[in-house]
Every structure is written in structure tokens, then in C-alpha cells.
UniProtKB/TrEMBL annotation:
Gene3D superfamilies: NAD(P)-binding Rossmann-like Domain. InterPro entries: NAD(P)-bd_dom, NAD(P)-bd_dom_sf, Polyketide_Oxido-like. Residues 7-107 form the NAD(P)-binding domain. One of its GO terms (molecular function) is oxidoreductase activity, acting on the CH-NH group of donors, NAD or NADP as acceptor. Coiled coil: none annotated. This is NAD(P)-binding domain-containing protein. PANTHER family: FLAVIN REDUCTASE (NADPH), NAD(P)-BINDING DOMAIN-CONTAINING PROTEIN. It comes from Lachnellula hyalina.
Amino acid sequence: MKVLLLGVTGNVGSRMLPALLAHKHQVVGYVRAPAKISPEARSKLDSIVVGSASDSAAIKAAILSHNCDAVVNAAGLAAMTGWTSQGEFPTIFAAVVQAALEAGRERGGAPIRCWLLSGFGILDSPKKPYLLLDYIPLFPSHKRNYKLIKSQPADTLAWSLFCANQMNPKYDKPQFPPSVDTLASNLVAKADAPPAWAEKYRKVPLIGNYLNVMAQAQSYFSVLENCVDFMAADLDKGLESEWIGKRVAVKEKSKLN
Ligand SMILES: NC(=O)c1ccc[n+]([C@@H]2O[C@H](COP(=O)([O-])OP(=O)(O)OC[C@H]3O[C@@H](n4cnc5c(N)ncnc54)[C@H](OP(=O)(O)O)[C@@H]3O)[C@@H](O)[C@H]2O)c1
């Protein structure tokens, strides 16, 4: 696929690039500060578009002019709390969604395939209709973003939200090609709720559900390079992916009980 990658200078996006290339995707980098792209990444990108990730019209133009079939958004960073402001991230998320939606419509035919970085908190908790974020109210913008996209029909925008908890890089720098020990096969994945979730502390009166979430959240920390390989590998399936229209949760196989 030809992929427009936003956030290629960031923690996630810089590692997403080698993962996409390893799966034979062509990558157009969309950045606001091209001087920050490493020489190695620069030499591997199909092309570079300079623009703001909050500029929906510019993102749409990049998708259309480079004839991209897919968009991966790793631009912007969710603020940890919403006590003062949620920062620019919700604006970026909305701009990317609108751009991909309109580009798909204008081009006609198949919708744009879209992986959007999101957060662990918007996964379902075992007590419906609550989300994990209702028990640990961190990174609130993910909930706002999920609200925006969840009613979006998959035949207009083929979206998936990647809802990892903290992702820790195994290697200090992006590896070209990615190391063979960092692959999606190290993960188990599930739609809409965390895989292998245990029913811990649920019977403790009043605070049981809170304890349940807090006790388990850390066991969902994952290796960043495994996660980017997961999304890059999934793009191989195009519009046949089982994750379209889903929040996607992962867990390291090494952390399964
Ligand atoms: N890291 C994790 O453990 C983790 C866990 C769960 C979810 N996530 C989500 O993953 C996403 C990426 O996180 P990250 O850790 O890679 O963040 P990061 O290292 O701060 O990277 C953010 C990227 O966004 C770009 N960016 C920000 N505002 C922009 C704008 N207006 N126009 C164009 N580019 C812009 C930055 O470009 P500049 O280099 O120019 O600043 C940078 O490339 C976020 O949505 C985050 O919430 C991360």
C-alpha cells in the first residue's frame, strides 16, 4: 500500500517507518519540521510533505496528490489529564479523520484505510458500559476522539484505533530493517477490550472495579517495535482486515499467565 505517515519524527512514527518498509509499503512522510527527519529515514521515504497535522485540507491534498491508500496517524501526543487543556491532539485527530474521509469520498471507490494511535483507556471495562478510562481518568482526549470516530461507517473510512497502554522501545533508535526479535507475533490482540483480562478484586465492595483496572494496567505495557509491526502487517490485508471499525488492544505473549 502507499501510506501517508504523520508523526514520522516522533517516538512511535519513527519506528513505524521501518516497520512499514519491512512490509513493502511505500511511505509518504507528513511532517511540520522536515529538518528533524533523520538522514536514514529521509533516504527511505518515498516523498515528504511539509504541513501541520491540524490542517485537514493539507492532509487531504497530500493523500490525493500522492495517491495514498492508507493513512497512519502517529502525530500529536495525548495530554495526561484534561484538568487544564487537552492540547492540540484532539484537533489533529479530527483533522486526520476529516481529511481521510473527504479524500476517500472525492477519489471515489474504496475508502481510505486508517490506523490511528489511541489509548488503553477507551477499551471496554468488564462492567459495561464503562470504559477503563472511567476508572483511571488519564489521557481523556482518547475518549473524545473515540466518540468522534465510533459512528463512522467502515465503508466511508476504514478506521482502526490502536489502543496500547505504554509502549516502550526495545531499541534506542529505529532499526532499518527492524530486528527479527520485534514482531507482531510477540503479541496477542483483541478487539474492543484487553486480551486475557482477569477478574481480580471485582468483588471488593465499592472499589473493586478500580482495583481491578489499576492492578492490571501495567501488565499491558508493550514493546513499541512489536506494536508498529502489528499495524504495518495488518495493512497488508487492506480492506479485508478484521480490525476495521475496532479499537485494538494488545498484550505481550511473554506477559500471559
Ligand atoms: N508512546 C506511548 O507509549 C504511547 C502509548 C499509547 C498511545 N500513544 C499515542 O501515540 C501517538 C504518538 O506518540 P509518541 O510517543 O510518538 O509522541 P511524540 O514522540 O511526542 O511524537 C509526536 C509526533 O507528532 C508530531 N506533531 C505534533 N504536532 C504536530 C503538528 N501540529 N503537525 C505535524 N506534526 C505534529 C511531532 O512532530 P515534531 O517532531 O515536529 O514535534 C512528532 O513527530 C500519540 O497519539 C500518543 O498519545 C503513545
